[in-house]
Amino acid sequence: QLPARNQIVECDTKLRALAQAEPDCDRGMVAVVEAARSANDPRLDEDAPALTTGGHMRRLIVRDRTGYVLIQLADIESLEAAGNYVRIISGRRVYLMRSTMADLQAVLDAGQFARVHRSTIVNIDAIQRITPHASGDFEILLNSGRTLRMSRSYRRRLLP
């Protein structure tokens, strides 16, 4: 369901403040408001590209200052919780989306994305190495060189 115009303005204001405080946030990409969960929403253009396949999203729609950006799921490295928003990390760009991790996990393909922490979902294809720690947690090294923490409670999704 698409948000009302006044909700978009309110989100824009909150996101601008969050983007100022978030050093990784691309300043040109502020204000993400929707995830377009269904291509069947009557308020979407009939000519708009299909956003879902078999119940799973193929792209995320991110609103910026001048319009919308479609982010291919294959380009996403990780999704990380940031308060009431989700930080989408795609290459060197960082986008913000007002959503919950649970909502995104429900629409993302489980064959491509795995929840590795209560605040992190990772693209499985972006993982280079998983290293165990004495605490029982794991460290995930991504192809980009970034590292993420994987909680032991989420290990069954990626490890035997």
Per-chain topology:
Elements: H1 5-21, E1 52-53, E2 56-57, E3 59-63, E4 68-72, E5 78-82, E6 85-90, E7 93-97, H2 101-107, E8 113-117, E9 120-123, E10 127-132, E11 138-142, E12 147-150
Antiparallel strand pairs: 1-2, 3-4, 5-6, 5-9, 6-7, 8-9, 10-11, 11-12
Would you write up a description of this structure?
The protein is of the alpha+beta class and about 160 residues long. It is about 15% helix and about 35% strand. It is built from two helices and twelve strands. The chain has helices at about 5-20, 100-105; strands spanning about 50-55, 55, 60-65, 70, 80, 85-90, 95, 115, 120-125, 125-130, 140, 145-150. The chain has a five-stranded antiparallel beta sheet with strand order 7-6-5-9-8, with no helix packed on it. It is globular. The model is unreliable at about 1-10 and about 25-50 (pLDDT under 50).
Order of helices and strands: HEEEEEEEHEEEEE
User: How many angstroms does the end-to-end distance come to?
Assistant: 38 Å
Overall pLDDT metric: 74
Quaternary form: single chain
| Backbone structural class | alpha+beta
